[in-house]
Amino acid sequence: MSFGQGGPQWGPGGPQTPDWAALAEASESRTRRRKWLMIGGGALATVVVAAAVAIGVVSANSDNTSASNKPAGELPSTADIPGASEKPAPSFEETTPPPPPDPMEFISSVKKDKAPLSAETLFPGKSLTSGERVYKKGRTDSTKKCASVTQAELGTILTKNGCTQLFRASYVKDNIAVTVGVAVFDTQARAKKVNEQAKKGLVVSLPGKGVPSFCRTAVCRGTYNAYGRYAYFTTTGFTSDKDVTEKERKVYTVGDDLARFAFGQIHRRGEAQASAAANAPE
Questions:
Q1: Which residue, among 197, 181, 119, 117, has the nearest Cα to 148 in the 3D structure?
Q2: Total-model pTM
Q3: Residues sharing a CB contact under 8 Å with residue 250, sequence separation 6 or more, in sequence order
Protein backbone atom coordinates (compact mmCIF):
# COMPACT_ATOMS: atom_id res chain seq x y z
CA MET A 1 0.00 0.00 0.00
CA SER A 2 1.24 3.35 -0.75
CA PHE A 3 0.33 6.94 0.20
CA GLY A 4 0.98 10.14 -1.63
CA GLN A 5 4.25 11.99 -1.46
CA GLY A 6 5.56 12.57 2.01
CA GLY A 7 3.70 9.65 3.63
CA PRO A 8 5.13 6.37 5.06
CA GLN A 9 6.14 3.79 2.52
CA TRP A 10 6.39 0.01 2.70
CA GLY A 11 8.32 -2.05 0.23
CA PRO A 12 7.58 -5.50 -1.19
CA GLY A 13 8.82 -7.08 1.96
CA GLY A 14 6.13 -5.45 4.15
CA PRO A 15 6.11 -2.20 6.05
CA GLN A 16 9.50 -0.51 6.63
CA THR A 17 10.60 1.49 9.70
CA PRO A 18 10.51 5.32 8.99
CA ASP A 19 13.85 7.19 8.83
CA TRP A 20 13.39 9.18 12.03
CA ALA A 21 16.69 11.05 11.74
CA ALA A 22 15.80 12.36 8.29
CA LEU A 23 12.37 13.43 9.47
CA ALA A 24 13.84 15.34 12.45
CA GLU A 25 16.37 17.11 10.28
CA ALA A 26 13.66 18.19 7.83
CA SER A 27 11.51 19.52 10.69
CA GLU A 28 14.42 21.50 12.17
CA SER A 29 15.18 22.98 8.75
CA ARG A 30 11.61 24.23 8.38
CA THR A 31 11.70 25.74 11.87
CA ARG A 32 14.88 27.70 11.09
CA ARG A 33 13.35 29.10 7.92
CA ARG A 34 10.27 30.31 9.77
CA LYS A 35 12.43 31.94 12.49
CA TRP A 36 14.57 33.89 10.00
CA LEU A 37 11.45 35.01 8.13
CA MET A 38 10.01 36.37 11.41
CA ILE A 39 13.22 38.20 12.28
CA GLY A 40 13.55 39.65 8.80
CA GLY A 41 9.94 40.79 8.83
CA GLY A 42 10.44 42.53 12.19
CA ALA A 43 13.53 44.38 10.98
CA LEU A 44 11.69 45.51 7.93
CA ALA A 45 8.86 46.81 10.08
CA THR A 46 11.33 48.77 12.17
CA VAL A 47 12.83 50.38 9.11
CA VAL A 48 9.37 51.33 7.85
CA VAL A 49 8.45 52.93 11.20
CA ALA A 50 11.73 54.90 11.36
CA ALA A 51 11.18 56.17 7.87
CA ALA A 52 7.67 57.25 8.79
CA VAL A 53 8.93 59.16 11.82
CA ALA A 54 11.62 60.89 9.78
CA ILE A 55 9.08 61.93 7.19
CA GLY A 56 6.84 63.27 9.94
CA VAL A 57 9.64 65.40 11.40
CA VAL A 58 10.54 66.91 8.03
CA SER A 59 6.92 67.69 7.39
CA ALA A 60 6.45 69.38 10.77
CA ASN A 61 9.50 71.58 10.30
CA SER A 62 8.79 72.51 6.73
CA ASP A 63 5.60 74.47 7.54
CA ASN A 64 3.70 72.32 5.02
CA THR A 65 6.26 72.98 2.30
CA SER A 66 8.71 70.59 0.75
CA ALA A 67 12.37 70.66 1.76
CA SER A 68 14.32 73.12 -0.32
CA ASN A 69 17.43 72.18 -2.23
CA LYS A 70 18.23 75.81 -3.09
CA PRO A 71 21.70 77.19 -2.34
CA ALA A 72 22.15 79.35 0.75
CA GLY A 73 22.25 82.56 -1.28
CA GLU A 74 18.66 82.02 -2.43
CA LEU A 75 17.26 81.32 1.03
CA PRO A 76 15.20 84.07 2.75
CA SER A 77 17.08 86.59 4.89
CA THR A 78 16.68 86.71 8.62
CA ALA A 79 14.40 89.74 8.36
CA ASP A 80 12.01 87.69 6.14
CA ILE A 81 11.74 84.84 8.59
CA PRO A 82 8.42 84.94 10.48
CA GLY A 83 8.91 85.95 14.11
CA ALA A 84 12.15 87.91 13.53
CA SER A 85 12.04 91.13 15.61
CA GLU A 86 12.94 94.48 14.07
CA LYS A 87 13.29 96.10 17.55
CA PRO A 88 16.79 96.34 19.06
CA ALA A 89 17.63 94.25 22.08
CA PRO A 90 16.87 95.98 25.37
CA SER A 91 19.77 97.96 26.78
CA PHE A 92 20.46 98.94 30.36
CA GLU A 93 22.36 101.95 31.58
CA GLU A 94 25.50 101.18 33.51
CA THR A 95 25.18 102.06 37.15
CA THR A 96 28.17 103.38 39.04
CA PRO A 97 28.34 104.03 42.76
CA PRO A 98 28.26 107.69 43.73
CA PRO A 99 31.62 109.25 44.55
CA PRO A 100 32.53 109.35 48.24
CA PRO A 101 31.68 112.59 50.05
CA ASP A 102 34.29 115.34 50.04
CA PRO A 103 35.84 115.74 53.53
CA MET A 104 35.77 119.51 53.01
CA GLU A 105 31.96 119.39 53.03
CA PHE A 106 32.01 118.33 56.68
CA ILE A 107 34.57 120.80 58.01
CA SER A 108 33.29 123.85 56.12
CA SER A 109 30.04 124.41 57.99
CA VAL A 110 28.80 123.88 61.53
CA LYS A 111 25.64 122.33 60.04
CA LYS A 112 27.55 119.22 58.88
CA ASP A 113 30.57 119.24 61.19
CA LYS A 114 29.00 117.23 64.04
CA ALA A 115 31.89 115.06 65.29
CA PRO A 116 33.03 115.56 68.91
CA LEU A 117 35.43 118.48 69.20
CA SER A 118 37.81 119.09 72.10
CA ALA A 119 41.46 119.79 72.87
CA GLU A 120 42.03 116.04 73.18
CA THR A 121 40.47 115.21 69.80
CA LEU A 122 42.59 117.90 68.14
CA PHE A 123 45.80 117.22 70.10
CA PRO A 124 45.78 113.56 71.19
CA GLY A 125 48.58 111.60 72.86
CA LYS A 126 51.50 112.68 75.01
CA SER A 127 53.93 113.55 72.25
CA LEU A 128 54.16 114.37 68.56
CA THR A 129 56.59 112.85 66.07
CA SER A 130 57.43 114.63 62.84
CA GLY A 131 60.09 112.80 60.85
CA GLU A 132 62.93 112.22 63.29
CA ARG A 133 61.80 115.02 65.60
CA VAL A 134 59.82 114.16 68.73
CA TYR A 135 57.99 116.88 70.64
CA LYS A 136 56.70 116.41 74.16
CA LYS A 137 53.18 117.70 74.73
CA GLY A 138 52.52 120.05 77.64
CA ARG A 139 49.23 121.64 78.65
CA THR A 140 46.04 121.93 76.60
CA ASP A 141 43.03 124.19 77.15
CA SER A 142 39.96 125.62 75.43
CA THR A 143 37.80 128.74 75.75
CA LYS A 144 34.77 130.30 74.17
CA LYS A 145 36.25 133.76 74.78
CA CYS A 146 38.70 133.60 71.91
CA ALA A 147 40.11 137.10 72.41
CA SER A 148 41.12 136.31 76.01
CA VAL A 149 44.00 134.04 74.91
CA THR A 150 45.30 136.15 72.03
CA GLN A 151 47.12 139.43 71.66
CA ALA A 152 44.86 142.41 71.11
CA GLU A 153 45.18 142.69 67.31
CA LEU A 154 44.33 139.05 66.68
CA GLY A 155 41.64 138.98 69.38
CA THR A 156 39.74 141.79 67.69
CA ILE A 157 39.75 139.96 64.36
CA LEU A 158 38.55 136.70 65.94
CA THR A 159 35.71 138.44 67.72
CA LYS A 160 34.62 140.39 64.64
CA ASN A 161 34.36 137.19 62.58
CA GLY A 162 32.45 135.23 65.18
CA CYS A 163 35.00 132.88 66.75
CA THR A 164 33.05 130.36 68.85
CA GLN A 165 35.93 128.45 70.50
CA LEU A 166 39.69 128.41 70.60
CA PHE A 167 41.73 125.33 71.53
CA ARG A 168 45.42 125.47 72.51
CA ALA A 169 48.22 122.96 73.12
CA SER A 170 51.95 123.43 73.75
CA TYR A 171 54.89 121.26 72.69
CA VAL A 172 58.62 121.46 73.48
CA LYS A 173 61.83 120.06 72.05
CA ASP A 174 65.21 120.97 73.52
CA ASN A 175 65.10 124.73 74.15
CA ILE A 176 62.32 125.57 71.67
CA ALA A 177 58.62 125.60 72.59
CA VAL A 178 55.50 126.20 70.50
CA THR A 179 51.84 126.82 71.25
CA VAL A 180 49.38 125.84 68.51
CA GLY A 181 45.88 127.34 68.54
CA VAL A 182 42.80 126.28 66.56
CA ALA A 183 39.93 128.77 66.34
CA VAL A 184 36.46 127.58 65.33
CA PHE A 185 33.88 129.47 63.23
CA ASP A 186 30.43 128.63 61.88
CA THR A 187 31.45 128.86 58.21
CA GLN A 188 34.48 128.52 56.01
CA ALA A 189 34.05 132.08 54.78
CA ARG A 190 34.56 133.52 58.27
CA ALA A 191 37.70 131.48 58.90
CA LYS A 192 39.06 132.61 55.54
CA LYS A 193 38.51 136.28 56.46
CA VAL A 194 40.48 135.81 59.67
CA ASN A 195 43.39 134.37 57.71
CA GLU A 196 43.31 137.33 55.32
CA GLN A 197 43.07 139.92 58.09
CA ALA A 198 45.50 138.48 60.67
CA LYS A 199 48.62 140.53 59.98
CA LYS A 200 49.66 141.07 63.56
CA GLY A 201 49.11 139.50 66.93
CA LEU A 202 49.77 136.03 68.29
CA VAL A 203 48.03 133.32 70.26
CA VAL A 204 49.28 133.66 73.84
CA SER A 205 51.78 130.91 74.73
CA LEU A 206 50.59 128.19 77.13
CA PRO A 207 53.28 126.94 79.59
CA GLY A 208 52.91 124.06 82.01
CA LYS A 209 53.33 120.28 82.30
CA GLY A 210 57.00 120.33 81.37
CA VAL A 211 56.88 123.38 79.13
CA PRO A 212 58.49 126.48 80.73
CA SER A 213 57.25 129.99 80.18
CA PHE A 214 58.19 131.40 76.75
CA CYS A 215 57.27 134.18 74.38
CA ARG A 216 56.05 136.52 77.10
CA THR A 217 58.66 139.25 76.74
CA ALA A 218 60.78 138.12 73.77
CA VAL A 219 60.16 138.38 70.04
CA CYS A 220 58.63 135.14 68.74
CA ARG A 221 57.56 133.78 65.39
CA GLY A 222 53.86 133.48 64.56
CA THR A 223 51.99 131.75 61.70
CA TYR A 224 48.38 132.08 60.50
CA ASN A 225 46.33 129.87 58.23
CA ALA A 226 42.81 128.51 57.67
CA TYR A 227 41.22 125.28 56.50
CA GLY A 228 37.50 124.67 56.33
CA ARG A 229 35.76 126.54 59.16
CA TYR A 230 38.94 126.52 61.25
CA ALA A 231 41.77 129.04 61.53
CA TYR A 232 44.99 127.78 63.08
CA PHE A 233 48.00 129.61 64.50
CA THR A 234 51.41 128.89 65.98
CA THR A 235 53.54 130.88 68.42
CA THR A 236 57.15 129.61 68.58
CA GLY A 237 60.13 130.80 70.58
CA PHE A 238 63.00 129.93 72.90
CA THR A 239 62.35 128.77 76.44
CA SER A 240 65.17 131.13 77.47
CA ASP A 241 63.09 134.06 76.19
CA LYS A 242 65.74 134.91 73.62
CA ASP A 243 64.45 136.85 70.62
CA VAL A 244 63.79 134.88 67.45
CA THR A 245 65.46 136.15 64.29
CA GLU A 246 65.20 135.01 60.69
CA LYS A 247 68.46 133.13 61.11
CA GLU A 248 66.97 130.81 63.72
CA ARG A 249 65.90 128.11 61.25
CA LYS A 250 65.22 125.54 63.98
CA VAL A 251 62.48 127.77 65.35
CA TYR A 252 60.92 127.95 61.88
CA THR A 253 61.08 124.17 61.57
CA VAL A 254 59.29 123.64 64.90
CA GLY A 255 56.55 126.13 64.03
CA ASP A 256 56.05 124.60 60.58
CA ASP A 257 55.85 121.07 62.04
CA LEU A 258 53.06 122.11 64.39
CA ALA A 259 51.21 124.05 61.69
CA ARG A 260 51.22 120.96 59.46
CA PHE A 261 50.05 118.88 62.41
CA ALA A 262 47.08 121.21 63.04
CA PHE A 263 46.15 121.13 59.36
CA GLY A 264 46.38 117.33 59.33
CA GLN A 265 44.15 116.99 62.39
CA ILE A 266 41.46 119.17 60.85
CA HIS A 267 41.64 117.25 57.57
CA ARG A 268 41.42 113.90 59.33
CA ARG A 269 38.34 115.17 61.10
CA GLY A 270 36.71 115.77 57.72
CA GLU A 271 37.85 112.39 56.38
CA ALA A 272 36.42 110.53 59.35
CA GLN A 273 33.02 112.14 58.95
CA ALA A 274 33.00 111.62 55.17
CA SER A 275 33.84 107.94 55.62
CA ALA A 276 31.10 107.51 58.22
CA ALA A 277 28.58 109.13 55.86
CA ALA A 278 29.63 106.91 52.94
CA ASN A 279 29.26 103.73 55.01
CA ALA A 280 25.99 104.73 56.68
CA PRO A 281 22.97 102.63 55.60
CA GLU A 282 20.53 104.43 53.37
A1: 181
A2: 0.66
A3: 176
